[in-house]
Amino acid sequence: MGGMWHLSSELAGSGMSAPRTVTIQSLDPRINRLRIPAELPEFTPKPMLDEWEPYEVFWKEKPGDQPVHVGTVRAPNPEMALVLAKEGYCRRGKTYTIWIVRTADIYTFSPDDTDIFATVPEKTYREPDAYKVVQKILRLKRQQQRERSSEEGE
Amino acid sequence: MYGNLSIVEPLNTEEREDPERVAEFEERIARGEKIEPGDWMPREYRRQVLRMVEQHAHSEIIGALPEGTWITRAPGFKRKLALMAKVQDEVGHAQLLYSAAETLGKPREQMINDLLSGKAKYSNVFNYPALTWADTAIIAWLIDAAAIINQTLNSKGSYGPYARALERICKEEAFHLKYGYDNVVTLASGTKRQRQMLQEALNRWWKPIMHFFGPPDSMSVHSEKLLRWKVKMASNDEMRQMFLDAYVPKIWELGLTIPDPKLRKNPETGKWEYSDPDWDEFWRVINGNGPCNRERLAVRRTADELGAWVRRALLKPNGRYVAPLF
User: Fold this and answer.
1) Does the pLDDT of residue B13 top 70, yes or no?
2) B116 — contact with chain A (CB < 8 Å)?
3) Contact A65, A83 (CB under 8 A)
4) Distance from CA of B225 to the nearest CA of A (A)
5) What is the pLDDT of residues B114-145, one digit of tens each?
6) What residues pair up with B265 in beta bridges, in sequence order?
7) How much is the pTM?
8) Residue A17: DSSP 8-state
9) Residues B290, A29: C-beta atoms closer than 8 Å
10) Coil/strand/helix, residue B298
11) Cα–Cα distance between A114 and B35 in angstroms, integer?
12) Chain A to chain B Cβ contacts (< 8 Å)
């Protein structure tokens, strides 16, 4: 790799007595303190659920706001989910509060079934605009006038 | 973006997609609609978006390491606080992105296994060390600037969960960029030694920065379809040009020299010309032979192993895997 990515030994200066196993030599003192073996043991994959289960995060900017779904965290329990959601989703700007809900507890439609809402806009008889009352009143008034004038003529 | 197709399921080219559904899908994208997790999508789209989001998640979590190097020795308490906040932001971004990636059907545990076993790739720049405090300043300014160009473009991309995660991420990255710039300007206006430290850091980081957007368009495959699907919003070379346009003048303004004698903007084409940034080195490093590949992986694995007992102790016996909603 060439020499440019190494500091001279004088600057790097570890000064520690050499440990028995060869450890990773890092520029980061926190990593050196861990004494990580340079030769990694064989990797054992982590099992499922090692990262816990997901919780959905709902956020309110100010009191009275409806909570808005902003994303997900993984946590072992609701208390941790709340802490992690605060760290992940409320890092900047204003927040009034957040709600968290276990994803598994959310019961919703399958994406394939969301067309059950397709006919809602078609049911216009449930909309105020579907009722043309003013026209009917005008017609009624014309009818009343006709009836009155025919009475007067008798 | 580059690499990582090995960690997503291979595509069975024998199985053809329904051309009608593909056409409908492409029309939706052309209309500017977002594709959501439950929507039908071509298998190749799912594979490519997963590859990209997963690689981005890994890059955030590994990206916290080079800068973290200087937390214990940051010059002054304010800079230490800011650096810790930045590193925390990066780790938070990884969490957001793993959640977005999971909606495409790959559990988070599998993604982390692929990272820890060395199978998955992450952004190549993080395989280089932050030798001095000036290196962290250059990373925070220029690497984050490059990342913001990429992420701002991709936040207009077609996959809803990724686009939304990027919008959030970009807001936080704006602080990283300004913080990095502030540190660079402080060093640039400091003593002769500080200026020299900054110049040397820039010299070291210039090649990795040129590598950041991935191999040149002439070397990269399947770009056309990814652009049409709005998985990518600009080609690697286009993004590199945007970066050079925005930042070369700012670097020169500080009295710094860019270590490439051929770098210049061609007044006729309006394009930047530069020396070959050594793509052989790029491939060498990405394939595991960079100055820090081993350390990055070892540290990540150790951190994961040290936390394992806590995670196991908190695990509920009746837990089951659920993909996040988004």
Assistant:
1) no
2) yes
3) no
4) 26
5) 999 999 999 999 999 999 999 999 999 999 99
6) B272
7) 0.89
8) P
9) no
10) helix
11) 15
12) 148
**Do the Cβ atoms of A26 and B299 come within 8 Å?**
yes
For helices B77-102 and A78-89, angle between their N-to-C axes, nearest 10 degrees: 110
Q: Which letter, b or e, does each residue of B211-244 get, where b requires 16 or more Cβ atoms within 10 Å of its Cβ?
A: bbbbbeeeebeebeebeebbbbbbbbbbbbbbbb
Q: Tell which B residues from 128 to 187 touch A, by Cβ distance under 8 Å.
A: 128-131, 164-165, 168, 171-172, 175
Q: State the ipTM, two decimals.
A: 0.86
Q: How far apart are CA B73 and CA B68, in angstroms?
A: 10
What's the token pair of residue B38?
């439950």
The residue type found at B21 is R
How close are the terminal C-alpha atoms of chain A, in Å? 115
Phi, psi for A47 (deg, rounded to 5): -75, 165
Distances (CA, A) of A117 to A129, B34, B37, B93, B107: 20, 20, 19, 35, 31
Nearest CA in chain A to B94: A88
Chain A: nearest CA to B268, how far in angstroms? 36
| Distance between CA atoms of residues A19 and B302, nearest Å | 18
Residues 212 through 271 of chain B touching chain A, CB cutoff 8 Å? none
Q: Any idea which of A56-65, B10-19, B109-118, B179-188 has the lowest mean pLDDT?
A: B10-19
Task: Inspect the interface and report whether the beta carbons of A28 and B68 lie closer than 8 Å.
Answer: yes
Q: What is the DSSP letter of A68?
A: E
CA distance A41 to chain B (A): 10
